[in-house]
Amino acid sequence: MCRRRLLKPSPASSGNSPEPACKSKGTDRMILGIDLGTTKTAAVLYDPATPAESRAESAVHHAALPAAPGRAEQDMETLVESVRKLLNRFSVAKLAGVEAVGLTGQMHSILLRNETECSPVITWQDRRASEAGELKLLQTASGLPLADGFGGTTLGFLRRSGELARWRHAATPAGFLAMRLTGKSRAGIDPSFAASWGIYDRTSSGWNRAALAALGIPEQLLPAPCPFGTLVGRTAGFAPLPDGIPVFTPLGDNQASIAGSSEDPEREVFVTIGTGAQLSIVLTAAEAAAAPAAPGVELRPYPGNRLLAVTAPLCGGRAWSWLGKSVNGFLSALGLPLFPENELLDRLDVLASEAAPESGIRVAPSFLGERSTPERRGSIGGITLDNFTLPNLAAALADGIVRQLAEPMPPELLRSRRRIAGSGNALRLCASLRARLEEQLELPLEIRETKEEAAAGAAKYAHSCLKSKP
């Protein structure tokens, strides 16, 4: 491990298992949602009676730690303190009215604890397994499509390197926050987060014991799988929150973002293009049973006995940014003046929109590899003496970004959808991406402007738990 920091955990509760269900009734007061993201922390005070009156706060958490090449780590205590700082932006009166706390955060990531210390968070961006040539071995041993950055991949790697023996408990960053909020020594893990580690068995709703045995991961190290909406406990000693507020097991940020941005999830296609990219479709139980297996499509648990079909290439808006940096790189090499980045990206967007259709150029923007095939690289093909122009290249790149999202998804899963719910800065700012998305999916696009949709979704989900439990 690159760095370890001693944490001061809250006093342990009398039990290590999550409480089975919430016993409180919703009263349509304020619900707090918290999102521990990769680069920022967000908090939303959600008002179920008048959602427009909800208030969102966010800040870059600066939790990243210096790490060796291929490694991506964050300091958990910095993440916890970033939450406390955000909560202090809300008035005491507002926090006094909070009825429940919903949590979400970066999926796949993991941290480890023992009686005295806590490891750094090893995030979903970590590539230590493939950098060390271990990923294929872990995939073969487990029989699972493990990817870099998955919690199961990290645990398997640490087991092989001998670093796992010193640790007693594993948790997600959001799960650790749930423990800090409630004073519990352990917290369960819901299906959305458990599946993100790559070693969960949806059929049994538990860990894949055969894979754990093959990878040498002790099951007692892992948090206990529990149903969606399980109550972890109630707030205790986490100022400025009052004590006694129900806190629910965290929901994955993919699922939470959908809950935060949609009132009709089974009729929409959810597309986010930011640094990365993600296309998600909520499947009913019947749709999921009939869905064909499709390479590049991951099925993730979703509340309400549903599944989420997801495509998630690693390069989305970052590929568009790459084109701008490349153009400026060419200009620099020629000794010519450079364009400001935002102005250049806007110009490239206009050029892409004005390019002739079907130039023949085809771009595969796998510049960062892909989750299950990190060795994969991007490519530009179909070049002739006449078609390699900047407008054609920009248009082909926009098409390639969208094609990587859309092509793996079986067409039959799209037929009952009525619109695309779009989010992410790259999609908001790039007209050529929006146009290609509508063309390829043959659906109208609506850009959703929900502030901090993942935190808002966590709050909405906690509210639904309060209403549904006796």
From TrEMBL:
Any single Pfam family the record assigns to this protein: FGGY_N
Keyword annotations of the record: Kinase, Transferase
Gene Ontology MF, one: kinase activity
Region annotation (Disordered) ranges: 1-26
Any single GO BP term: carbohydrate metabolic process
Annotated ranges, domain Carbohydrate kinase FGGY N-terminal: 30-259
KW Lipid metabolism (keyword) present: no
Heme recorded as keyword: no
Family, per entry: Belongs to the FGGY kinase family.
Annotated protein name in UniProt: Carbohydrate kinase FGGY N-terminal domain-containing protein
